[in-house]
Amino acid sequence: VETPAAPTPPSASNPAPALPPWLARAKFVWPAPVLLNYELSGTSKGVRYTASASISWKQQDNSYQLRHEIQAFLFGKRSQTSAGHMGATGLLPTRFGDQFRQEQAAHFDRAKGVLIYSANTPSQAIEEGAQDRVSMFVQLAAAMAGTPDLRNLGQTLSFQVVSAKQAEVWTFAVLGNEKITTLLGDLDSLKLHRVPRNEYDQKIDMWLSPAHGYLPARLRITQANGDVIEETLKSVGKP
To answer: Could you tell me the pTM of the whole model?
Structure first.
């Protein structure tokens, strides 16, 4: 009977997955559990509409639950959820769900190092520091809160971002400090921008609020077809 081969240890020819440089030096300060409520305005095929949105963040004993929800009068409700753990490299999602009429999900199988999609799209390798479409908000917030030099103008942060059907590397650039107007009054913010890799990429701008643990006080998402969603903080409560 052959004995199974031992796992190959990392070596020069078989290196361990490398941490992105920014992540290797990042320290994380987690925001307190919170429910952020937003006023939402958008355009869809040239038609303007308003809605409400929220981000709920809960954490306990190194586990977390996150939900980003949008409720629009004509379009219905869409919710994206993330659950997992907190570790030395930040959030470690185990499941991402995206529900609009029906739910699709991505599972982070860290034992095998792969992402598995309920939509039956091909599985992909999990990269170090991988986040999903919701956990990225808190990952960036906690990194900015805990690592002051990451807030410097021109800093870039790249990591794998997972949706319900695929994963790709996104890069965010720090654009500097900006005062913004919200229903809670004027807030200081740190503006980050997703650096698009091609003309069809979704554009994302986020204004992170130091007064709220660097969670977003404003979000603007622009689709390739020109549709825009903008969420602006209007109230803060308990999750």
So the answer is: 0.91
